[in-house]
Amino acid sequence: EPVSAAIWTDAEFDHWLATTDAKITYHGNATSNPLAPRDASITRVTYCSSIIGNACGGACTVYYGGATCLNAPNTVCLAATNNVGFCSSAGCVGSCTLLTSCEYYLDGGFCYTPDTKSIIVTTL
């Protein structure tokens, strides 16, 4: 389980999905074949609406796909398999911060991202 980095490996992401009690909504291709080679252009992101203790949880959305702008109102924490940007306005505009610049980590390696309204997923 990651300790201080919100960029997870696929194994860490799978472990979180298998052990969380969060209410999950899937967006994009929710199935991933563990035997298939990983496509570097695919990013998995989980973003949630609640902090419980020092853990990210509550209602969470899991995105699996390529470059996009995710509408993510009420997001307060997230983790991903690649670097993403989290923005204070809808439409991936306004003030945006890279996940690698996370200032506060929650349990399990999630980044605390209060006031997030959208998430930029890129293929870079």
Poorly predicted tracts of residues: none
The strand line-up of the biggest sheet is 1-3-2-4-7-5-6
- The rough form would be described as globular
The description of the largest β-sheet is: 7 strands, mixed
What does this structure look like?
With 124 residues, the protein is mainly beta. It contains one helix and seven strands, in the order H-E-E-E-E-E-E-E. It has a seven-stranded mixed sheet, with no helix packed on it.
Quick recap of the structure?
The chain is mainly beta and 124 residues long.
List the helices and strands and how they pair.
Blueprint: H1 10-19, E1 23-28, E2 43-52, E3 55-65, E4 68-80, E5 84-87, E6 96-98, E7 111-121
Parallel strand pairs: 1-3
Antiparallel strand pairs: 2-3, 2-4, 4-7, 5-6, 5-7
Short key terms for the protein model shown above:
seven-stranded mixed sheet; mainly beta; 124 residues; single chain; Gamma-B Crystallin, domain 1
